[in-house]
Amino acid sequence: MQKINKNVVLALLSLTSLVFLLFQLYYYKFYLSQKNGAVFSKVRGSQSGQDSTRWHVVRKFLGLISSHNIPVYLIDPLILGLVDKDIEQIRSSPDGPSPECKYFCAPRDFTTFALLDKTWKHEVGLFRTAEKMGFQWLKIINKDPRLDGMDDLSGIEIPLHYIFKLASHAIHLVVFYERSGNYLWHGPLRLKQHMDRKFVPFRKLHFGRYPGAYEKPELLLVSIDDLKVQIPKNPSSFLEEMSHSRFLECRYREARAFFQLYPDDASLDAVEFRKKAKSLLHLAALTLNNLGVKFWLSSGTCLGWYRQCNVIPHSKDVDLGVFIRDYKADIIPAFQKAGLPLKHKFGKVEDSLELSFQGEDDVKLDIFFFYEEVDHIWNGGTQAKSGKKFKYLFPKFTLCWTEFVELKVHVPCETLQYVEANYGPDWKVPVKTWDWKSSPSNVQYNGVWPVDEWDDVIQIY
Amino acid sequence: MDEWKPNPAVKPHKKRSWYLAWKYKLMNQRALRKLCQTGAVLFLLVTVIVNIKLILDTRRAAYEEEEESAQDYDDEMMNVEVPRRPVSNKKVLDVEVYSSRSKVYVAVDGTTVLEDEAREQGRGIHVIVLNQATGHVMAKRVFDTYSPHEDEAMVLFLNMVARGRILIFTIKDEGSFHLKDTAKNVLKSLGSQVAPFLSWRDMWTFVGKKGGEVYGEKHAKSPALSTWGDPVLLKTEVHLTSVEDAECHWPDTELNHRRKRFCSKVEGYGSVCSCKDPTPIEFNPDPLKDNKVFNVPVAVIAGNRPNYLYRMLRSLLSAQGVNPQMITVFIDGYYEEPMDVVELFGLSGIQHTPISIKNARVSQHYKASLTATFNLFPDAKFAVVLEEDLDISVDFFSFLSQSIHLLEEDESLYCISAWNDQGYEHTAEDPSLLYRVETMPGLGWVLRKSLYKDELEPKWPTPEKLWDWDMWMRMPEQRKGRECIIPDISRSYHFGIVGLNMNGYFHEAYFKKHKFNTVPNVQLKNVESLRKDAYETEIHRLLGEAEVLDHSKNPCEDSFVPDTESRVYVMFIRMEQEADFTTWTQLAKCLHIWDLDVRGNHKGLWRLFRKKNHFLVVGVPASPYSSKKPSSVTPIYMEPPAKEEGAVAVPAVAAAEQT
């Protein structure tokens, strides 16, 4: 009898679980279809719909900030994209009334504005007025990165983002800070524990996933949709800049730990070398930027940034990387004009190109050209006396901005992989003797240059 | 064995028979039964797993859709639990106060808020002020009333404390020797029965509310001159009042919010916390026309002297042309009270973990502050460097605005300083006059960014070198022959009496009589003539017109300079080579100006005023201006007094005014 009961129980259980499963499946399907439907309806709305709420909120916000004399400018990528199409017309008739609401009426959750920190005192009065006008607001503060590199300074936390919400629309105000290296920086948006995660759909924000670095924009006062706003003078270049604005802070904490382990070289020689390397890097950056050639910190200079946030005093040269597609024949004359004569040129544009320029007092500037393959990136090396070729392989990377010796420069975003490819897993340990032909962990022997090409591919001055 | 397979499409009415048959079969076939059982269990398990997964999936989907809050946006630190102090609604505080020869302590609700058992210090009356609503310590002071004048400071302090605050007194070692009647009466008015009769080496503790009840008092008389009274321990209870009663009712403004926060935390700042008619904390001085230093950052270097900082910031914020947004106060150490002062004025403050000790600590603090200043204001070409024990002249920024272009254009300049080392009441006269000097006076000065970034910062003395930063900056390796511009009448006034290299005597001797400009909007004279070459022309012109004084007289005598006004006189002293300052030091001594090391010289020439006449001193033959000496005049030589003990210590105190 017991055995029967057991079986019955089992069967019953199976049955209920089956029913349960079916119910779950049904529910899931129902839920999914509802969600998709919602997404579709939103898309539809944004294509044809008009949303005067947004326009009113933006107008109120502009009124609020102008009453407190705060100069903000529009950086909303969606609006700037639209504005860019009509930029000629907008520029030519800055005051004309617009027949239809073209830019500020597409229903969106946000409109994004920028604020330059030094143009405003962060007065509390603004928020009181905002509250009186019906805005809810949220302030996102965090550590001041300008003091991050310094030992033992506990700075005040600085506001990085403000969000003003009224009805269904929110204004995202990104605070930009000026930093050493003559550029603007905005911080990441990170919510603290006590903050309201549902205040706005944070994930949809255009700014704040990462910190960003920008040039100081020239501004233009325009009137769009009968609202007077400042916009970047050249919206398309701003949008271009925005697409690769991601900024990496130097790893100051790790650098401090490094110096605890390996005290910094404070000798006069080291001080002198750092000073020269810094000025050489500044000169190189100026020259390449003028030519519009994108470059990044490579090899030892990149390691110095990543490991110790400074120039490695025993490295003896400055290393830069450039994609071969960005190569310009003007590079050599431009450097010569800047007072940096060509020291040697190895390889050719098609293969393993490398340029070296002679800086002040034996400090050398090396520019390595990088060749992109399907699954990796490489640059070449050449031994002058034997004509031997070497190849250094790197995993693919993208470029991020960073600040180094008071300069805004690129580094590979995936810096760790880049440094590890080059220096192996022990990159944290300083090595004084380095042989570029055998020490790197990513070096490959790559044959020998044909003797008849030597005159072209091995040029030493 | 006949196989019977259940038909899946079987009709319901046949179900029972099917089931029975199946059951029957199973009963007979153990193996099959086992198999079915396992199958069922497995099926169960699978459904449970699928169920859980589905639940999780749907929940996540729902979460994403509804919340949209992304993990990318969560602060790394968000999971750190903030320890919350339990809000105590306690209305009564237990207070313990101990007084003895070698130790004093005060404990409030079991927490020690004062403990001093150090030898050879902390003598006198310790005073603690508690907030009557929260019980927080608002001020802690010790007045060494064994020494003169300290009782006056105590009276001043007690008068500043707001009514209603709880005051705790305790004596360590000796506190009555210079406790005058005025002070005793103040203590009596607070409710102390014993205070009027306090005498030599008595021990005493007292807890009372200002202008209110007495919570307890204990006293132990010293039995004999050579012995101390027995240690006294006072245990008492203090009843707290409500927060509303403890606060003033100022109008609801942003400024008063700051004031309220400040006044509920600290005491001893006088009328800033007065309920009726509090002193302003915003000054709105006149802006300067064409202010060239409006965007120059101002770094205020501070330690833990909050009362000094308060006085300093008041004068700074009252100076015409000040831009509060450019001011950053750098506090050496995690002291709360200086930060409270900074916040009271709505300025930004940065705390710095002390590195190293003594002079090196100051020097590291300077370095961190300067680096931070240029990081925070990356497009600044200069920084104004101030210290917390300076009064700032009303025309400080006007003075800098008129002269800063020189620092930008003239490579031979090292700094602009608001301080004239030799500008005493009796030796400075003309607020519109500027000098070039080979020394770096500090005490309110402007630093060029390129000088700091390219030269000073990389070589700055490391923490293990116990150097004074200013002495280091004056070294020829750093200064490289460059000069500083200073005014005749200083634009800053050094009021600090306590400090690393400072004491009351030293201050009285060298700083108290320093002249300080109080005239607004002084138009500086001949700023262009301060450039390197123009200055030489100017000096030659000046020497050309100067009357040579009678060298047969004693230069220390007042009659050495005739009783005239606005004339230019010159005297020649002996100076064998560039570093021979024997006669100058003696002259400086008798003129009662800075004589601890050589300051204020320019190529062997000193410029000051005597009896309202411009008074030039030329060192012959080292100075290039020696050629102006008439051949008939013999340079004055003054012998240094026979070997003095103190002479060796001179370099050690030379930089004393800096801290």
Automatic annotation (TrEMBL), chain A:
<dbReference type="GO" id="GO:0000139">
    <property type="term" value="C:Golgi membrane"/>
</dbReference>
<keyword id="KW-0472">Membrane</keyword>
<protein>
    <recommendedName>
        <fullName>Ribitol-5-phosphate transferase</fullName>
    </recommendedName>
</protein>
<dbReference type="InterPro" id="IPR045587">
    <property type="entry name" value="FKTN_N"/>
</dbReference>
<feature type="domain" description="LicD/FKTN/FKRP nucleotidyltransferase">
    <location>
        <begin position="292"/>
        <end position="329"/>
    </location>
</feature>
<comment type="similarity">
    <text>Belongs to the LicD transferase family.</text>
</comment>
<feature type="domain" description="Ribitol-5-phosphate transferase FKTN N-terminal">
    <location>
        <begin position="1"/>
        <end position="278"/>
    </location>
</feature>
<dbReference type="GO" id="GO:0009100">
    <property type="term" value="P:glycoprotein metabolic process"/>
</dbReference>
<keyword id="KW-1133">Transmembrane helix</keyword>
<dbReference type="Pfam" id="PF19737">
    <property type="entry name" value="FKTN_N"/>
</dbReference>
<dbReference type="InterPro" id="IPR009644">
    <property type="entry name" value="FKTN/MNN4/W02B3.4-1"/>
</dbReference>
<dbReference type="Pfam" id="PF04991">
    <property type="entry name" value="LicD"/>
</dbReference>
<feature type="transmembrane region" description="Helical">
    <location>
        <begin position="7"/>
        <end position="28"/>
    </location>
</feature>
<keyword id="KW-0812">Transmembrane</keyword>
<dbReference type="InterPro" id="IPR007074">
    <property type="entry name" value="LicD/FKTN/FKRP_NTP_transf"/>
</dbReference>
TrEMBL record, chain B:
<dbReference type="GO" id="GO:0030145">
    <property type="term" value="F:manganese ion binding"/>
</dbReference>
<keyword id="KW-0812">Transmembrane</keyword>
<comment type="subunit">
    <text>Interacts with DAG1 (via O-linked mannose moiety). Interacts (via transmembrane domain) with FKTN; the interaction is direct and is required for normal location in Golgi membranes.</text>
</comment>
<dbReference type="InterPro" id="IPR039474">
    <property type="entry name" value="POMGNT1_PANDER-like"/>
</dbReference>
<keyword id="KW-0328">Glycosyltransferase</keyword>
<keyword id="KW-0808">Transferase</keyword>
<dbReference type="GO" id="GO:0016266">
    <property type="term" value="P:protein O-linked glycosylation via N-acetyl-galactosamine"/>
</dbReference>
<dbReference type="Pfam" id="PF03071">
    <property type="entry name" value="GNT-I"/>
</dbReference>
<comment type="pathway">
    <text>Protein modification; protein glycosylation.</text>
</comment>
<dbReference type="GO" id="GO:0000139">
    <property type="term" value="C:Golgi membrane"/>
</dbReference>
<dbReference type="Pfam" id="PF15711">
    <property type="entry name" value="ILEI"/>
</dbReference>
<keyword id="KW-0464">Manganese</keyword>
<keyword id="KW-0472">Membrane</keyword>
<comment type="similarity">
    <text>Belongs to the glycosyltransferase 13 family.</text>
</comment>
<dbReference type="InterPro" id="IPR052463">
    <property type="entry name" value="O-linked_mannose_GnT"/>
</dbReference>
<protein>
    <recommendedName>
        <fullName>Protein O-linked-mannose beta-1,2-N-acetylglucosaminyltransferase</fullName>
        <ecNumber>2.4.1.-</ecNumber>
    </recommendedName>
</protein>
<comment type="function">
    <text>Participates in O-mannosyl glycosylation by catalyzing the addition of N-acetylglucosamine to O-linked mannose on glycoproteins. Catalyzes the synthesis of the GlcNAc(beta1-2)Man(alpha1-)O-Ser/Thr moiety on alpha-dystroglycan and other O-mannosylated proteins, providing the necessary basis for the addition of further carbohydrate moieties. Is specific for alpha linked terminal mannose.</text>
</comment>
<keyword id="KW-0430">Lectin</keyword>
<dbReference type="InterPro" id="IPR039477">
    <property type="entry name" value="ILEI/PANDER_dom"/>
</dbReference>
<keyword id="KW-1133">Transmembrane helix</keyword>
<dbReference type="GO" id="GO:0030246">
    <property type="term" value="F:carbohydrate binding"/>
</dbReference>
<keyword id="KW-1015">Disulfide bond</keyword>
